[in-house]
Design goal:
It contains 14 helices and twelve strands. By secondary structure, the protein is of the alpha/beta class. It starts with a strand and ends with a strand.
């Protein structure tokens, strides 16, 4: 299962957000730096409004949603790349995740300590990115030293690798994360082998106060973050209120909905953040639907039908024959699989079919 790491400066709401996303109290959330040392890991359900209509059509009581893992990583401070604070641990844990959710504090509260003394989310982003860039610069330098021997020996692969490393090094030296450096598709593919920290897909979570969520778009901190990350990092930002979701953990779904309605919002932003992270990881969903259960299966964007079948069981991929396929929207419009067949929108797809998000599928196989 792919993992997204929650990172940020100390006391920006990382552990509160982790508890909210995982609906637990597993991560200690306290008003002092480094209350998280060892990373907490939690499996998170991906909210999907398509499951309930599918459940009604399939006439089942069992629904199994898609899931991803989130990791709550220790707070980073300036100098982490040189081992300050929990720098070495932090960087090692970031290296192990597949994507990054960077939490930035977008609220003023004199009772909540900020490690820099003042609230400035753009400065906070630059602190973290600078440390990640410095760590990557060291990694690139070491790797170029290793491939230098191969280049001297006439190794073409080593020369190609060094050319990409040189491009990345030049970009890092200007303060650009690896993800924002202009590379060709082939160069980008080669760069993935370097496992650079700043090459990980990243999304920013603007953490606002409960009272500010309904008008978050007018929050100057949120505006600054959105403008900065789009212009300099080619990343997206979503608004969340970790404290609201933390308050909802112990409520029933009905009580939680009522609480949010009183605040004038549909959700605190956590659902949107989870879905955005799911997409950030390059994932999408297809469904199986029957009397036994309705289930969301996670695959990578671009996966073919046999690959999708293999997520259920390796035998399905090995002995793949065909995939009976129906688009979610077509099924909802028709109201049943039988009606979809009558309308001619129920399709038979072969080995080369690239699965679309929301496909409802039934696989035929033989081993």
């Amino acid at each position: 299962m792919l993992r997204a790491g929650i990172v940020g400066l100390p006391n920006v709401g990382k552990s509160t957000l982790f508890n909210a996303i995982t609906r637990t109290r597993n991560a200690e959330a306290a008003n002092y730096p480094f209350c998280t040392i060892d990373p907490n890991v939690g499996t998170v359900v991906v909210p999907d409004a398509r499951l309930e209509p599918l459940r009604r059509i399939a006439k089942t009581s069992v629904v199994i949603p898609a899931a991803i893992e989130f990791v709550d990583i220790a707070g980073l401070v300036k100098g982490a790349s040189a081992g300050e604070g929990l720098g070495n641990k932090f960087l090692a844990h970031v290296r192990e995740v597949d994507a990054i959710v960077q939490v930035v504090r977008c609220f003023d509260d004199p009772d909540v300590h900020h490690v820099s003394g003042t609230v400035d989310p753009v400065r906070d982003i630059e602190v973290i990115n600078t440390e990640l860039i410095l760590a990557d610069m060291e990694a690139v330098t070491k790797r170029r030293e290793r491939v230098a021997k191969g280049i001297k020996g006439g190794d073409k692969a080593a020369a190609a690798e060094d050319a990409v490393l040189a491009k990345i090094e030049a970009g890092l030296n200007t303060g650009k994360p690896a993800l924002a450096i202009d590379l060709t598709p082939d160069e980008r593919l080669l760069a993935k082998q370097f496992f650079l920290l700043t090459d990980k897909p990243t999304i920013f979570a603007c953490n606002v106060k409960e009272s500010e969520l309904v008008d978050a778009d007018s929050n100057p901190y949120v505006k600054n973050v959105r403008e900065y990350v789009q212009a300099h990092l080619s990343c997206d930002a979503v608004v969340i209120s970790a404290q609201i979701e933390s308050d909802l953990v112990d409520l029933s779904p009905e009580e939680a909905d009522a609480f949010l309605r009183e605040l004038g919002v549909d959700e605190s932003g956590i659902g949107a953040l989870i879905r955005a992270t799911y997409r950030l990881l390059g994932l999408q969903t297809y469904f199986t639907a029957g009397e036994k259960e309705v289930r969301a299966w996670t695959i990578r964007v671009g996966d073919t039908a046999p690959k999708a079948a293999g997520v259920i069981h390796s035998d399905f991929e090995r002995g793949f024959i065909k995939a009976e396929t129906l688009a979610y929207d077509d099924l909802i419009e028709c109201g049943s699989i039988a009606a979809a067949r009558d309308r001619g929108v129920y399709r038979i797809e072969g080995r080369e079919y690239v699965v679309a998000d929301g496909d409802v599928m039934l696989f035929k196989f033989n081993v």
